[in-house]
Amino acid sequence: MLHVPPVGITHQVFTSYQELMRRIHKQINSSDAQLRRQTVIVRLSDESEDDWETFLDQLDIDESVRVVRLEGGLARLTWTNQHLSHI
């Protein structure tokens, strides 16, 4: 059966950068990451390297976030505030 959304509801399309941000935001807001105030993120093979670098550069600007770039496309994020709501 074909699922048809109700009238007035549209399917929102996100850019590749927005999808990357949504994925990392979900990871950062997990209870484990919030408890430890750190997480290791990885660029997925289907994600743009330019989007990844832009995202990490934006995090580097934030004084409450520390970004440590690791080998293999990984980055360790640590933060001082309870929630990184701006990501």
Describe the structure.
The protein has 87 residues and is α+β, with helices and mostly antiparallel strands. It has one domain (16-79). It has helices at residues 16-28, 31-36, 49-61; strands at residues 38-42, 65-70, 74-79. It has a three-stranded antiparallel sheet. The protein is globular. The protein starts with 15 loop residues before the first helix and ends in an 8-residue tail after the last strand.
Question: Which properties best describe this structure?
Answer:
single chain; 87 residues; alpha+beta; three-stranded antiparallel β-sheet; 3 helices; 20% strand; globular
What share of residues is helical?
Answer: 25-40%
Rounded mean pLDDT is 86
| Low-pLDDT regions | none
Query: What portion of the residues fall into strands of 2 or more residues?
Result: 15-25%
What's the total helix number?
A: 3
* Lateral arrangement of strands in the main beta sheet: 1-3-2
Structural class of the secondary structure composition? alpha+beta
Number of DSSP E strands: 3
Number of domains: 1
Largest sheet: 3 strands, antiparallel
Order of helix and strand elements from N to C terminus: HHEHEE
Computed CA radius of gyration, to the nearest angstrom = 16 Å
* Termini gap: 37 Å
